[in-house]
Recover the amino acids of this structure.
């Protein structure tokens, strides 16, 4: 199949909407990452998403809408969700809602809840409005690859597999939406994203919990609250190691780890904050973005991970952020890229030889 890559002109939006309404797939930009959309109420269309991505069937999809009226007959809106919708929609917040039988099992992987989001990106909004049906859309990457934040990323994963990609430039947030469960007691962040735990707590005036699997691997036998958290994700081919500790020690440890690894014959690099590029000269430094502005780290993280693969690094040593605010979402993605492998700078510096 030929994959068209088009800027979102009125004609391209019409074509995209026609494709969606006839059960085909369209990749489109959102403020988080690029989505791969299909008519959420047509199981045969939704099935094509799983085939194109190589996605396991038990990993449910997010249903995208442009108007809350579209939820009529599909799900019940819990009171806490209502409050959050007023504060954060349209935007990067996905809410779980108890659903009716009209939502196909294929969308929810048979779960009793459906994940719903209203994106703020103008191209996503225009497309959703034109198509007129709720659109099921996961990230538009092949399963196991970093989510796409540019149309070029989508093309590199989906060329020949889907008929159309709408090119709306680079995504603003750069990480997937926050997934929040408000259906079971204390609201719980299942996946951290652009709407932070702190922002949710401010609006709700209550505590919001965070799923345990966000900053550590699932324990043997532990159930993932969000099925997507079960899967290996965002992992480059090379081995990523997170280096933790106080700033000066981390920089010293990164230099030591890099040189030891290179000496052992492994093609190596460091991932560091923009502020530390000079201090790490000679260690193949790759820019994570500004430590003082974590939003810039989120924006470029997936692009950076894709580049590491293209450049064929075998060993990657990375700085970390405190897991607060946007730092929680960043450390969740970086942690998973590293399979949560980390070393304390102090230990690295005191290790013999
Ligand atoms: P993606 O489409 O790649 O952004 O992934 C959607 C994420 O939302 C995955 O991590 C899913 O596991 C999660 N998700 C979707 N629906 C549900 C649901 N009903 N319950 C829990 N998690 C969900
Ligand atoms: Mg995804």
């Amino acid at each position: 199949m030929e994959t068209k890559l088009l800027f979102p002109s009125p004609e391209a939006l019409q074509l995209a909407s026609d494709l969606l309404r006839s059960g085909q797939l369209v990749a489109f930009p959102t403020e988080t990452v690029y989505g791969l959309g299909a008519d959420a109420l047509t199981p045969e269309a939704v099935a094509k998403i799983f085939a194109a991505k190589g996605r396991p069937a038990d990993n449910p999809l997010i249903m995208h809408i442009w108007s809350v009226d579209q939820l009529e007959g599909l799900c019940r809106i819990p009171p806490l969700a209502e409050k959050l919708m007023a504060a954060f929609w349209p935007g990067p917040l996905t809410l779980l809602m108890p659903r009716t039988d009209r939502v196909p099992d294929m969308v929810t992987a048979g779960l009793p809840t459906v994940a719903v989001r209203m994106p703020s990106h103008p191209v996503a909004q225009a497309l959703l409005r034109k198509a007129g049906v709720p659109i099921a859309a996961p990230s538009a990457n092949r399963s196991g690859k970093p989510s796409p934040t540019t149309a070029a990323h989508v093309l590199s994963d989906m060329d020949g597999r889907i008929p159309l990609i709408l090119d709306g430039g680079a995504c603003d947030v750069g990480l997937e939406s926050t997934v929040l469960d408000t259906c079971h007691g204390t609201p719980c962040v299942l996946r951290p994203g652009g709407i932070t735990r702190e922002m949710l707590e401010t609006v709700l005036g209550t505590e919001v919990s965070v799923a345990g699997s966000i900053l550590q691997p699932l324990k043997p036998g532990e159930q993932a609250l969000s099925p997507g958290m079960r899967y290996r994700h965002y992992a480059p081919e090379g081995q990523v190691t997170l280096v933790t500790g106080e700033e000066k020690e981390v920089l010293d440890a990164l230099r030591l780890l890099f040189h030891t690894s290179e000496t052992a014959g492994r093609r190596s690099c460091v991932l560091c904050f923009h502020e530390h590029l000079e201090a790490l000269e000679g260690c193949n430094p790759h820019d994570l973005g500004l430590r003082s502005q974590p939003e810039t780290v989120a924006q470029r993280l997936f692009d950076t991970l894709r580049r590491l693969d293209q450049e064929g690094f075998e060993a990657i040593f990375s700085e970390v952020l405190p897991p607060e605010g946007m730092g929680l979402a960043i450390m969740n993605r970086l942690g998973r890229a590293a399979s949560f492998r980390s070393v304390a700078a102090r230990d690295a510096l005191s290790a013999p030889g």
About this structure: The longest helix spans residues 247-263. The chain has eleven helices and 16 strands. The pocket of adenosine monophosphate (ligand 1) is lined by residues 59-62, 96, 108, 111, 113-115, 138-139, 176, 179, 190-191, 226-228 (CB under 6 Å).
